Amino acid sequence: MIWYKDLYVGESIVHKTKKVKWKIMHNAGQIGIYVITLASNTQNLLDIIPSYELMQKGYPKKDMVVVGLAKGYDEAIEVAASIVDEVYHSTGTFAVRAYLAEKQG
C-alpha cells in the first residue's frame, strides 16, 4: 500500500490521521473508516473502500495508492468530490491520477 504524501482527510478524523493510518497498515479493525484510492481501473477516477475490506488476506493492496481517509461513507463522498473538484479547477480536466502524481513530484 502506498500512501499519498499530502493525504486528503475528512474533518471528523483530521486529528486522528496517524492513528487511523497505523491501524490500517497493521490490519486493526475500524468501523466506519473509508479509504479513498486511485481508481483500480481506467473507467473510474477514485475508489472508495471500507477499511474492513483491506483486512482480508487476499485483498490486492500491494500497488494501491491511498489519497484520502474519511469517517463514514458520506464524508468519503465529500472528500472524493473535493479531490475531483480541485483537479478540475486546477487543470480543467478530470485527470486525477496525473494531477496527483505531478503534485506529489
List keywords for this structure.
single chain, 105 residues, alpha+beta, four-stranded mixed β-sheet, 3 helices, globular
What's the arrangement of secondary structure elements?
Elements: E1 2-9, H1 17-25, E2 33-38, E3 46-50, E4 65-71, H2 73-91, H3 96-104
Parallel strand pairs: 1-4
Antiparallel strand pairs: 2-3, 2-4
Q: What form results from the Cα inertia axes?
A: globular
Order of helices and strands: EHEEEHH
The low-pLDDT segments are none
Radius of gyration (CA) equals 13 Å
Largest β sheet strand count, sense and barrel closure: 4 strands, mixed
Kindly state the mean pLDDT as a whole number? 92
Helix content: 25-40%
Quaternary class: single chain
Q: How many discrete structural domains?
A: 1
Query: Alpha-carbon distance between the termini?
Result: 18 Å
Strand content: 15-25%
Total helical segments:
3
Widest beta sheet: strand line-up: 1-4-2-3
How many DSSP E strands? 4
Protein structure class:
alpha+beta
What do you see in this structure?
With 105 residues, this protein is α+β, with helices and mostly antiparallel strands. The protein has one domain. Helix content is 35%, strand content 25%. The chain has 3 helices and 4 strands, in the order βαβββαα. It has a 4-stranded mixed β-sheet. A hairpin with a 7-residue loop joins strand 2 and strand 3 (46-50). The longest helix has 19 residues, at 73-91. The protein is globular. The mean pLDDT is 92.
In short:
This protein has 105 residues and is of the alpha+beta class. It is built from 3 helices and 4 strands; from the N terminus they run E-H-E-E-E-H-H.
